[in-house]
Amino acid sequence: MTPSEWPLRLVPRRSPPLWAALGVSVVSLGVAMALRGLLLGFQHAGGLGPTTLPALIVICLYAGPRFGWAALVAAIAAGLFSPIVQPRGAADTAVVAMFALSGVITVLFSTTLRETLLRLEEANAAQRSARRALADSEARFHRLADSAPILMWVTRADGKREFANRAYVEFLGGGYEEALDFDWREVLHPEDLPRILKEQVAGESSRRLFTLEARYRRADGEYRWIRSVSQPRLTPEGEFDGFIGVGYDITDAKRAQADLERINDLLAERVEAALAERDEAEAALRRAQKLEAVGQLTGGVAHDFNNLLTVIIGALDLMQRHPGDAARRDRMIEAALGAARRGERLTQQLLAFSRRQALKPEPTLVDELLKDSEPLLRRAVGEAVTLTLATDAAEAVADIDPSQFEAAVMNLVVNARDATPAGGMIRIETVPARLAAGQVEELEAGDYICVAVHDTGCGMDAETAARVFEPFFTTKAPGRGTGLGLSQVYGFARQSGGGVALDSAPGKGTSLRIYLPLTTRRDVPAEGAETPAGDRRSPALHILLAEDDAQVGELVEAMLRDLGHQVRQVPHAAAALDVLKGRERVDLLLTDLIMPGDINGVELAREAVRLRPGLPVILSSGYTGEALSAAEETPWPLLRKPYGAEDLARAIAEAAPDPAAVI
To answer: Are 318 and 328 in contact (CB under 8 A)?
Structure first.
């Protein structure tokens, strides 16, 4: 105990028992009185203060103010009324009075001193308790930190470390003091050093939580990935007081991540290879399917054209064998012409499927066109099956080729009739339809008119439904159909900007819907506006014919001369240009689209009009793909092969009605 602490020991921390307080008071006062008697005697009141006041201080400090006051009263009484002393004089009375005043002051001072010493003791006890709690807390923190498998450290506001745990020290491999003063830049991986320095300066200057991730060399020389997290610590007043940091080894996680990336790369390569193999297999399958389709198509075309050529060749052979038999000749001519026209229809159906047929679209009221076609459709269906027409799109106008639309509907009705037993029903209906994107395959979102043909026939399974639009595919008995009807429907719909949807199941009939986009054009041709021109004849013209096929050229020249025209035939565009550059009269140019050389029919026509402004031109072709599209964009009419003399005469009359106007 230090000298400054002995007054604190005199004052008990808790109130003493009554007997102890009373005993200390009696003993202290008795000792004081005895000491006074021994030193001064009891003959007078002198010496009462010097001997009694210290006892009062002891009593007040130990027993409390109540015992102090009691002791003071006892001392005064002893001084005034002690039977041992002689009667008091005035001087003794004054001494006792002075003693009483000193005693009161002493008791008051001692009481205040006692309370002060008690509060000081309480403060010291609280401080000692706080020190012990702090020491215990630090001990627990150190034990916890040392038992943690991660690196932990604490820095001051100036950046110097003031604590590091056991894992931290063991990672560096030195002593504790060395670890506190260690410069981490010495063990940072050279590749990570510039980045970490920038990130650390930025993090510490922000005085906010920051994270670093880098490779550090461990005591055994191995580089390990360490991810550190530094959290600012604050004083009770909220002042910045440094950082608390933790670091944990993520090397295994980094290796696992690298392994995962390698696995992903390997999987990506294998998936890419598998996809390439799949694409190659699909391409091979498509090639095989195309070859199969081409084989089926060529076989069907060969079969149908062989039948037609048999009729034509046989008819011509019989006419050649019996030139004088007029009746037989007329019959054979009709048979050959019929076969040729069937061949023309077959060609148009093939072009329709490939969406290469030359359409003549015009704004058409679909409901009105169906009503006009109803008598023909009823005759095609016959009386065994009921045909119902329900139109509900009176204002719907579609930009379509009317004749090809009628052919498509006829094909659907004929197919429905062949699939429907006697007593069944076929229903044709039209409704406006607003489609969402993807609602019907190959169609964009928009407004359409839906032309649907429903039947109560036998229906078809999914495998059959998937092939119905293939050319020459048919489920009918041999000789009952060409297999081109539905392919023409599909080609017409797609070429018109629409699509086809099929719904069928065995025993539940079939519903086939044609979706045609609506148009805002309303210039619907008036009924009867076009005048038949079959008998129109133009005056005799000088016609320049450019045709590379010698047989076709000879036949067209014969038809032109039969119509009364003068003809100059050339085999290619260069020869035609030579004629046009000369002074020979030319009233009209009739040219094929596909010509030998670098100039096609459209380019020849443009050059001819440049050389001879105002020259009428007629373009002619059977099918030329892109060249046909180019021809449709020109102002000149297109005469489609095959054509007869009446078609040729009509085209000439429309193209050059007045030869005098030709320059």
So the answer is: yes
